[in-house]
Structure formats: structure tokens, C-alpha cells
Amino acid sequence: MHISAKADYAMRALLELAREPSRPLTCEAIASSQEIPFRFLKSVVGELRRAGLVRSQRGCEGGYWLGRAAEEITLLDVTRAVDGELITLRGEPLAGLDYPGPATALPDVWREVEAAAAAVLGGVTLTSLLTGAATSVTGSAAVTGGLARRGAA
């Protein structure tokens, strides 16, 4: 699985906004604090705004705020907002993937990997990251259960 720079930067920017929700932050402040290239961050924040994850206000008192409460924004929301599909195969979604012969079962494994990744990312909110509560997600039965049944865990 590939985590794009865009998704990483988007999550880091949202965590900066979640840390101090009472005041807006500029892209310059976020970029500086998180050591993210400003021009790239500007583009990412635009996608987050279109997805409703941030809201903006122009002017000297302006900047960006979270578009929803931090406890309502998951890493899955962020990833899908900036990257679209969670996992693709050669740029195509896994939903209609079908192989012949001995590879017949392989698409089911790829879809299971996607479901497990979605379960992890969907279980982690901005709030859980800020409070340190997100660390318990990695050992979840939802993630390891399916692969263990196949003998891969």
C-alpha cells in the first residue's frame, strides 16, 4: 500500500488545525510548523475544503478551520478526500477485479487488504491522534482476523 505525500500532508495539516480549533491558521503557519512545501499544501488544503474537511475565511482575521469536529474526521475521510480510492491496482478500483484460473482467489485477497486498511483508517480520528488513543488500533482483531484465517498472520 502506498501512502501519498498528499495524504500525509493533508493529515498533518488537519492535526495542526485540530490542535487549536478556536483560531484560524494560515497555510503559511501550517506549512512552517509541519515543514510542508507551501505551494503543495495550498493545493491539498483546496481539496480538503472541497471535501468539507476544512472551511476558510478571507481577510486579515482569516485562515482555515476544521470543517467538522475533530472527533468526526477519520484518516479514511482524509485519504479519500485527497486520493480517492484507498487501494487501486494499476490505477483501477478493486471492485470489479476478476482473474481466471489459478489466480481466481487473488482479487478477494486484495479486497480484504483494502477492507482491513479502511478499518484501521476509519477507526482513527484526529482527536484520537491528538490524545494518543490511536495507538491501540493497530492490534485490532478487525485488521488481523481475516489474514490470520488465511495463515498469513
Compute the separation of the termini in Å. Answer: 17 Å
Q: What ranges have pLDDT less than 50 throughout 5 or more consecutive residues?
A: 141-153
Radius of gyration: 18 Å
The structure class reads mainly alpha
Task: Indicate the proportion of strand residues.
Answer: 5-15%
Q: Please give the largest β-sheet.
A: 2 strands, antiparallel
- Give the beta-strand count: 4
Report strand order across the widest sheet: 1-2
State the helicity in percent bands. Answer: 40-55%
Description:
The protein is mainly alpha-helical and 153 residues long. 50% of the residues lie in helices and 8% in strands. 19% of the residues are buried.
Features:
single chain; 153 residues; mainly alpha; two-stranded antiparallel sheet; two-stranded antiparallel ribbon
Present the secondary structure layout.
Layout: H1 5-19, H2 27-34, H3 38-50, E1 54-57, E2 63-66, H4 75-83, E3 88-89, E4 92-93, H5 106-122, H6 126-131, H7 141-149
Antiparallel strand pairs: 1-2, 3-4
